[in-house]
Protein backbone atom coordinates (compact mmCIF):
# COMPACT_ATOMS: atom_id res chain seq x y z
CA UNK A 1 0.00 0.00 0.00
CA UNK A 2 1.49 3.37 -1.06
CA UNK A 3 1.90 5.99 1.67
CA UNK A 4 0.52 8.63 -0.68
CA UNK A 5 2.66 11.61 0.33
CA UNK A 6 5.89 13.31 -0.68
CA UNK A 7 7.98 15.79 1.26
CA UNK A 8 10.39 18.64 0.69
CA UNK A 9 12.34 21.21 2.69
CA UNK A 10 13.67 24.64 1.79
CA UNK A 11 14.80 27.60 3.89
CA UNK A 12 13.05 26.54 7.08
CA UNK A 13 9.81 25.38 5.42
CA UNK A 14 8.84 21.70 5.46
CA UNK A 15 6.33 20.88 2.72
CA UNK A 16 4.14 17.79 2.88
CA UNK A 17 2.27 17.03 -0.33
CA UNK A 18 -0.75 14.72 -0.51
CA UNK A 19 0.26 12.69 -3.53
CA UNK A 20 -2.59 10.48 -4.71
CA UNK A 21 -4.06 12.81 -7.34
CA UNK A 22 -5.74 10.02 -9.31
CA UNK A 23 -7.74 9.18 -6.17
CA UNK A 24 -8.45 12.82 -5.33
CA UNK A 25 -5.82 12.54 -2.57
CA UNK A 26 -8.30 10.47 -0.58
CA UNK A 27 -7.13 9.39 2.86
CA UNK A 28 -6.43 5.82 3.88
CA UNK A 29 -4.60 4.18 6.81
CA UNK A 30 -1.15 4.42 5.21
CA UNK A 31 -1.56 8.04 4.22
CA UNK A 32 -2.82 9.04 7.69
CA UNK A 33 0.14 7.27 9.30
CA UNK A 34 2.63 8.90 6.89
CA UNK A 35 1.15 12.37 7.42
CA UNK A 36 1.27 11.97 11.20
CA UNK A 37 4.88 10.78 11.04
CA UNK A 38 5.96 13.75 8.95
CA UNK A 39 4.10 16.26 11.13
CA UNK A 40 5.85 14.84 14.20
CA UNK A 41 9.23 14.75 12.48
CA UNK A 42 8.95 18.36 11.33
CA UNK A 43 7.67 19.49 14.73
CA UNK A 44 10.73 18.00 16.42
CA UNK A 45 13.27 19.39 13.92
CA UNK A 46 14.80 22.71 15.02
CA UNK A 47 15.60 23.59 11.39
CA UNK A 48 11.90 23.55 10.50
CA UNK A 49 10.16 26.84 11.19
CA UNK A 50 6.92 26.33 9.23
CA UNK A 51 5.02 23.30 7.93
CA UNK A 52 2.93 23.46 4.74
CA UNK A 53 0.34 20.84 3.84
CA UNK A 54 -0.41 20.93 0.11
CA UNK A 55 -1.78 18.57 -2.52
CA UNK A 56 -0.88 17.40 -6.01
CA UNK A 57 -3.49 17.44 -8.75
CA UNK A 58 -6.74 19.37 -9.07
CA UNK A 59 -8.16 18.50 -5.63
CA UNK A 60 -6.90 18.97 -2.09
CA UNK A 61 -8.43 15.89 -0.43
CA UNK A 62 -11.67 14.13 -1.33
CA UNK A 63 -12.07 12.56 2.11
CA UNK A 64 -11.92 8.86 2.90
CA UNK A 65 -10.74 6.40 0.28
CA UNK A 66 -13.67 4.08 -0.59
CA UNK A 67 -11.48 1.01 -0.12
CA UNK A 68 -10.54 2.21 3.35
CA UNK A 69 -14.24 2.73 4.12
CA UNK A 70 -14.88 -0.81 2.92
CA UNK A 71 -12.16 -2.15 5.23
CA UNK A 72 -13.45 -0.25 8.27
CA UNK A 73 -16.94 -1.66 7.71
CA UNK A 74 -15.53 -5.15 8.31
CA UNK A 75 -13.70 -4.27 11.53
CA UNK A 76 -14.81 -5.30 15.00
CA UNK A 77 -15.74 -2.50 17.40
CA UNK A 78 -12.37 -2.32 19.17
CA UNK A 79 -10.44 -2.32 15.89
CA UNK A 80 -12.77 0.30 14.44
CA UNK A 81 -12.17 2.55 17.43
CA UNK A 82 -8.40 2.18 17.06
CA UNK A 83 -8.68 3.02 13.38
CA UNK A 84 -10.79 6.13 14.03
CA UNK A 85 -8.35 7.26 16.71
CA UNK A 86 -5.58 7.37 14.10
CA UNK A 87 -7.40 10.08 12.15
CA UNK A 88 -8.30 11.97 15.32
CA UNK A 89 -4.65 11.80 16.42
CA UNK A 90 -3.50 13.23 13.07
CA UNK A 91 -5.75 16.28 13.43
CA UNK A 92 -4.55 16.79 17.01
CA UNK A 93 -0.90 16.50 15.91
CA UNK A 94 -1.45 19.28 13.37
CA UNK A 95 -3.30 21.55 15.78
CA UNK A 96 -0.83 21.01 18.63
CA UNK A 97 2.37 20.96 16.53
CA UNK A 98 5.13 23.17 17.92
CA UNK A 99 5.39 24.70 14.45
CA UNK A 100 2.83 26.83 12.57
CA UNK A 101 1.03 24.77 9.92
CA UNK A 102 -0.31 26.28 6.68
CA UNK A 103 -2.86 24.57 4.44
CA UNK A 104 -2.49 25.27 0.70
CA UNK A 105 -5.91 24.48 -0.76
CA UNK A 106 -7.23 23.99 -4.28
CA UNK A 107 -10.21 22.04 -5.59
CA UNK A 108 -12.35 19.77 -3.46
CA UNK A 109 -11.84 19.25 0.25
CA UNK A 110 -14.32 16.80 1.68
CA UNK A 111 -14.67 14.93 4.97
CA UNK A 112 -11.20 14.39 6.39
CA UNK A 113 -9.85 16.97 3.95
CA UNK A 114 -11.94 19.62 5.70
CA UNK A 115 -10.60 18.33 9.01
CA UNK A 116 -7.01 18.72 7.80
CA UNK A 117 -7.64 22.34 6.78
CA UNK A 118 -9.52 23.26 9.95
CA UNK A 119 -6.75 21.79 12.12
CA UNK A 120 -4.12 23.95 10.41
CA UNK A 121 -3.25 27.35 11.86
CA UNK A 122 -3.60 29.20 8.57
CA UNK A 123 -5.48 28.21 5.40
CA UNK A 124 -4.85 29.79 2.00
CA UNK A 125 -7.14 28.82 -0.86
CA UNK A 126 -7.79 29.31 -4.54
CA UNK A 127 -11.20 30.22 -6.01
CA UNK A 128 -11.48 26.61 -7.23
CA UNK A 129 -11.65 25.35 -3.64
CA UNK A 130 -14.87 23.83 -2.38
CA UNK A 131 -15.74 22.14 0.89
CA UNK A 132 -18.22 19.49 1.96
CA UNK A 133 -19.05 17.22 4.86
CA UNK A 134 -21.41 14.71 3.27
CA UNK A 135 -21.07 11.96 5.89
CA UNK A 136 -24.71 12.23 7.06
CA UNK A 137 -25.79 11.12 3.59
CA UNK A 138 -24.31 7.70 4.28
CA UNK A 139 -25.48 7.62 7.89
CA UNK A 140 -22.21 8.82 9.43
CA UNK A 141 -20.76 12.01 10.94
CA UNK A 142 -17.38 13.73 10.52
CA UNK A 143 -16.92 13.64 14.29
CA UNK A 144 -13.11 13.74 14.36
CA UNK A 145 -13.08 16.93 12.25
CA UNK A 146 -15.76 18.68 14.34
CA UNK A 147 -13.60 20.12 17.18
CA UNK A 148 -11.44 21.95 14.62
CA UNK A 149 -14.38 23.01 12.46
CA UNK A 150 -16.07 24.51 15.53
CA UNK A 151 -12.95 26.55 16.21
CA UNK A 152 -12.65 27.61 12.57
CA UNK A 153 -16.23 28.67 11.72
CA UNK A 154 -18.28 28.41 14.92
CA UNK A 155 -21.04 26.07 16.04
CA UNK A 156 -23.92 27.38 13.96
CA UNK A 157 -22.13 27.32 10.63
CA UNK A 158 -20.58 23.94 11.45
CA UNK A 159 -24.03 22.60 12.28
CA UNK A 160 -25.45 23.69 8.93
CA UNK A 161 -22.49 22.33 6.99
CA UNK A 162 -22.65 18.93 8.69
CA UNK A 163 -26.45 18.63 8.67
CA UNK A 164 -27.04 19.51 5.02
CA UNK A 165 -23.92 17.98 3.46
CA UNK A 166 -24.00 20.81 0.93
CA UNK A 167 -20.89 22.07 -0.84
CA UNK A 168 -19.48 25.41 0.26
CA UNK A 169 -17.59 27.55 -2.23
CA UNK A 170 -14.27 29.26 -1.62
CA UNK A 171 -15.79 32.73 -1.23
CA UNK A 172 -18.17 31.58 1.52
CA UNK A 173 -15.41 29.58 3.22
CA UNK A 174 -13.32 32.74 3.26
CA UNK A 175 -16.12 34.80 4.80
CA UNK A 176 -16.76 32.18 7.49
CA UNK A 177 -13.06 31.77 8.34
CA UNK A 178 -12.32 28.29 7.05
CA UNK A 179 -9.97 30.03 4.61
CA UNK A 180 -7.97 32.98 5.92
CA UNK A 181 -6.90 34.18 2.48
CA UNK A 182 -8.38 33.69 -0.98
CA UNK A 183 -5.99 34.21 -3.91
CA UNK A 184 -5.85 33.39 -7.61
CA UNK A 185 -4.72 29.84 -8.27
CA UNK A 186 -1.49 31.00 -9.90
CA UNK A 187 -0.63 33.01 -6.76
CA UNK A 188 -1.13 30.23 -4.22
CA UNK A 189 2.55 29.44 -3.81
CA UNK A 190 3.48 33.12 -3.70
CA UNK A 191 1.01 33.74 -0.87
CA UNK A 192 2.07 30.62 1.02
CA UNK A 193 5.69 31.76 0.81
CA UNK A 194 4.74 35.26 1.95
CA UNK A 195 2.91 33.95 5.03
CA UNK A 196 5.72 31.48 5.77
CA UNK A 197 8.18 34.36 5.62
CA UNK A 198 6.14 36.37 8.12
CA UNK A 199 5.97 33.37 10.46
CA UNK A 200 9.73 32.86 10.33
CA UNK A 201 10.25 36.32 11.79
CA UNK A 202 8.76 35.10 15.07
CA UNK A 203 10.72 33.29 17.75
CA UNK A 204 10.19 29.51 17.58
CA UNK A 205 9.30 29.24 21.28
CA UNK A 206 6.97 32.23 21.06
CA UNK A 207 5.16 30.73 18.06
CA UNK A 208 4.75 27.43 19.92
CA UNK A 209 3.42 29.30 22.94
CA UNK A 210 0.84 31.10 20.78
CA UNK A 211 -0.52 27.70 19.75
CA UNK A 212 -0.51 26.44 23.34
CA UNK A 213 -2.25 29.56 24.61
CA UNK A 214 -4.99 29.38 22.01
CA UNK A 215 -5.61 25.68 22.69
CA UNK A 216 -5.63 26.25 26.46
CA UNK A 217 -7.66 29.48 26.55
CA UNK A 218 -10.19 28.94 23.74
CA UNK A 219 -13.66 28.56 25.23
CA UNK A 220 -12.58 29.36 28.78
CA UNK A 221 -14.85 31.87 30.55
CA UNK A 222 -13.31 35.18 31.56
CA UNK A 223 -12.22 35.03 35.19
CA UNK A 224 -9.57 36.22 37.61
CA UNK A 225 -7.91 32.81 37.35
CA UNK A 226 -7.68 33.12 33.57
CA UNK A 227 -6.25 36.64 33.85
CA UNK A 228 -3.62 35.46 36.32
CA UNK A 229 -2.72 32.48 34.15
CA UNK A 230 -2.26 34.76 31.14
CA UNK A 231 0.05 36.97 33.23
CA UNK A 232 2.01 33.91 34.40
CA UNK A 233 2.54 32.79 30.79
CA UNK A 234 3.73 36.28 29.85
CA UNK A 235 6.25 36.32 32.69
CA UNK A 236 7.61 32.94 31.59
CA UNK A 237 8.14 34.25 28.07
CA UNK A 238 9.79 37.43 29.33
CA UNK A 239 12.22 35.36 31.40
CA UNK A 240 12.96 32.79 28.67
CA UNK A 241 16.26 32.78 26.78
CA UNK A 242 14.43 33.49 23.53
CA UNK A 243 12.48 36.36 25.08
CA UNK A 244 15.61 37.97 26.47
CA UNK A 245 17.45 37.54 23.16
CA UNK A 246 14.58 39.09 21.24
CA UNK A 247 14.46 42.18 23.44
CA UNK A 248 18.25 42.55 23.29
CA UNK A 249 18.18 42.22 19.49
CA UNK A 250 15.49 44.91 19.27
CA UNK A 251 17.42 47.33 21.48
CA UNK A 252 20.74 46.64 19.75
CA UNK A 253 19.15 46.66 16.27
CA UNK A 254 20.44 43.16 15.45
CA UNK A 255 18.90 40.03 14.00
CA UNK A 256 17.94 37.36 16.57
CA UNK A 257 19.46 33.93 16.04
CA UNK A 258 16.24 32.31 14.83
CA UNK A 259 16.33 34.36 11.65
CA UNK A 260 19.48 32.60 10.46
CA UNK A 261 19.12 29.92 7.78
CA UNK A 262 19.44 26.35 9.09
CA UNK A 263 19.81 22.91 7.57
CA UNK A 264 17.28 20.19 8.24
CA UNK A 265 18.39 17.17 10.24
CA UNK A 266 18.74 13.98 8.22
What do these coordinates show?
Helix 3 (77-96) runs parallel beside helix 4 (112-119). The protein folds into two domains: 5-199, 2-enoyl-CoA Hydratase, Chain A, domain 1 (Alpha-Beta Complex), CATH 3.90.226; 203-259, Lyase 2-enoyl-coa Hydratase, Chain  A, domain 2 (Orthogonal Bundle). The chain is globular. The protein starts with a strand and ends in a 14-residue tail after the last helix. It has 266 residues and is of the alpha/beta class. It has eleven helices and nine strands. The chain has a six-stranded mixed β-sheet, sandwiched between helices. The relative contact order is 0.12.
How is this structure best summarized?
Helices cover 50% and strands 14% of the residues. It has 11 helices and 9 strands.
Mean pLDDT: 94
Tally of structural domains? 2
CATH architecture of the largest domain: Alpha-Beta Complex
Distance between the termini: 25 Å
Enumerate the spans where pLDDT stays under 50 for 5 or more consecutive residues: none
State the helix count: 11
How are the SSEs placed, and which strands pair?
Elements: E1 5-10, E2 13-18, H1 29-44, E3 50-55, H2 66-73, H3 77-96, E4 101-105, E5 108-110, H4 112-119, E6 122-125, E7 130-132, H5 146-153, H6 155-164, E8 168-169, H7 170-176, E9 181-182, H8 188-200, H9 204-217, H10 224-239, H11 241-252
Parallel strand pairs: 2-3, 3-4, 4-6, 5-7, 6-9
Antiparallel strand pairs: 1-2, 7-8
